[in-house]
Amino acid sequence: MEPHIVAASVSPNGNIEAYVEQDDRCAYLYLREVRDASFELGFGMKSCWVRNLKPAPVSLSAADMRQGLAPMLPSARCAHPMGANPLSKDALRIVWFEEGDAAALLEGTSVLAIIPCWSGQKGFYGYARDCTAESPLAWPPHGG
User: CA angle 27-66-45, nearest 5°?
Assistant: First the structure.
């Protein structure tokens, strides 16, 4: 299955967009600069793994990444190594932090993932509820 967007939102400042993309393997939260010459923040794109939908691999797949596929979180760092249910559009909500440069993904009242403003520094990309140990894709919300 091709990746598709299941939730999207533009920051209160109008300069960053958040979206959640999933295929039949995994789901990710992304933040990216809105393509508008008047903004030009140099923000680029930030990503955070949210969940695997299929059984987790033992290690990151370089082959998948070379093909442009979002990597699945390895089983040793995954709360649901056999996979979790796909995200439902109707249950998702993106909440922006006050400054408009960070966002959280909620499923009902449960926080699934957060990309804070300091994401992208020193090997940190965001927090994910279903992540159990620090990884290159996400960190657990309790800090590992």
Answer: 55
Rounded Cα distance, 33 and 10, in Å: 10
Strand order in the sheet with 103-107: 92-96, 103-107, 110-115, 127-128
pTM: 0.92
Classify 139 as helix, strand or coil: strand
Q: What is the pLDDT of residues 5-52, one digit of tens each?
A: 999 999 998 889 999 999 999 999 999 988 765 556 667 789 999 999
Q: Closest Cα partner for 104 from 26, 36, 9?
A: 9
Contacts for 100 with CB less than 8 Å, ≥ 6 apart: 11, 12, 13, 15, 16
84: helix, strand or coil: coil
